[in-house]
Amino acid sequence: MTGNSTDHHPARDVAEMFNSAVAAFALSAAWELGALDELRATGDLDAAEFAAGRGLDTAGTLGMFRALAAVRVVERDGTTVTPGARFAEAVRNRSFFHWLARGSSELFREMPSVLVAQNRVGEFYRRDPAAIALACREIDELCYAPTFWAAMGRLDFPVRRVVDLGCGSGGRLIDVLRSHPGSSAVGIDIARPSLEVARKEVAEAGFGDRAGFVEADVLALRPHPDYADVELLLCFMMGHDFWPRDNCVATLRRLREVFPAARRFLLGDATRTVGVPDTELPVFTLGFEVGHDLMGTFIPTIADWESVFAEGGWELVRTNRIGVAVGEVVFELAPR
Length: 336
Prior knowledge:
By secondary structure, the chain is of the alpha/beta class. The chain is 46% helix and 15% strand. It has helices at 10-32, 35-42, 47-53, 58-70, 87-92, 94-103, 105-109, 111-114, 129-153, 171-179, 192-204, 245-258, 285-295, 302-306; strands spanning 45-46, 74-77, 80-83, 161-165, 184-189, 211-215, 232-236, 264-269, 314-321, 329-335. The mean pLDDT is 95. Residues 162-258 form the Methyltransferase domain.
């Protein structure tokens, strides 16, 4: 063995790869079933009692915790489960795993078929929009919310009429309506399951009389009387769907026409990583970028975005770089 040798254990490394894939599904399930929240609140739980209390299969529930123990998210002594060395960070990033394991699992499972060129026509892949909307709500809180609210604080006009493009499950609209009592809002999304969740949650929050929802493609909106007095546009985590470049410019111009009274457009999205080695990518980046490559969706860089605003009829007021996981950014735009 020379002085330049590195201690490699390929079999162990590959086993960890496999176990991590299983654990990704287990982490998503543990969040959805409440196990992560219970562990965080109590510090320990009995897997059998947890299963019985929630009507779950005991053996399968223990298997879920075994998968998490295999990657040190939890520790397990028989049926007793406690947080492991990676628990806090895993909980912090759980929405990314939900996006992958629940929202996008079919896309990745069908990778061999999706990659065949002749199959890439029409709706050649499927994802779970409701699961993605749930994941994106927490991703928004983790990555975008502080910067979004800072941008909201810089508005020089009262918030009265708001539209959220690609509103998902409605979390942002609820927050805006709560923060601005005199406002009303419209959420627009192409995914009916997401809108069903949004309508339910907005109503439960007590804002059903101040919010409406439209099932429509943001990329093909038409002028409508309900949009004529909208002063604030929001669009988070779907701006990459505007691209490629010519389509993006056309969409930005169309938004100027559809929302003629808009005074500010807050556009937040992930951007393509630049200059990061494949072996050093942070959590979520690889899944997000590969997933969108599979879907044939172009992910622009920050420079790509900044090159289209003027041509699309918008003035770039401020670029807010976040970069928690996938080069997140919030652009503050005003009509030119």
